[in-house]
Amino acid sequence: MGWLIQTGVLADIEDVLELWQACGSLPSVSDTHDGLTGLLHTDPAALLLADLQGETIGSLICAWDGWRGSFYRLAVHPSHRRAGIATALVAAGERRLLDRGAARLTAIVADCDPRAMGFWQATGYRPQSDRARFIKQPHTPPSEGERSGKAKDAV
To answer: What is the β-pairing status of strands 105-107 and 69-76?
Structure first.
């Protein structure tokens, strides 16, 4: 094993962004130094990291909104996969969120990534078939369909 799960801090942000890039994570608008800084200022316990001798080899955001817990950005460096790191990060995140009083745990997963979908299902999470996720990115100009009121873009 040799790796440890620990809470990420501001000094870890660049390593986390590099990890996400090395993993080929689908980019999002919050994958920035400022985005992670805001996360840690809002919830200093939200970022879990797998550390191997000073190297960040895994990450998981376990966000708490006061009601439920949500997981984002589970990533393990490709050279360290299949060693139980992702499972350990999720278990640590579950303990952390349940200890805070989470009534429900959710994982936001790119449905175009069959490995990710399979992992979450193998850890006991199920797709929620009766809900859709809607998003709005306030700093992104609206599409033509959104401006005309005929938005049909898939989110």
So the answer is: parallel
Those residues of the chain that have pLDDT short of 70 are: 1, 140-155
d(CA 115, CA 152): 28
Dihedral (Cα; 35, 135, 74, 76), 10-degree rounding:
-80
Side by side, the strands of the sheet bearing 69-76 are 4-7, 47-52, 55-64, 69-76, 105-107
Instruction: Write out the H or E segment, with its range, that includes residue 43.
Output: none
Residues 97-116: pLDDT tens digits?
Answer: 999 999 999 998 888 888 88
Place of tokens 């979908």: 117
**Spatial separation of the C-alpha atoms in residues 60 and 46, rounded to whole Å:** 8
Owner of token pair 């579950």: 94
- Point out which residues pair with 107 in neighbouring strands: 71
Assess contact for 50 and 59: CB atoms under 8 A: yes
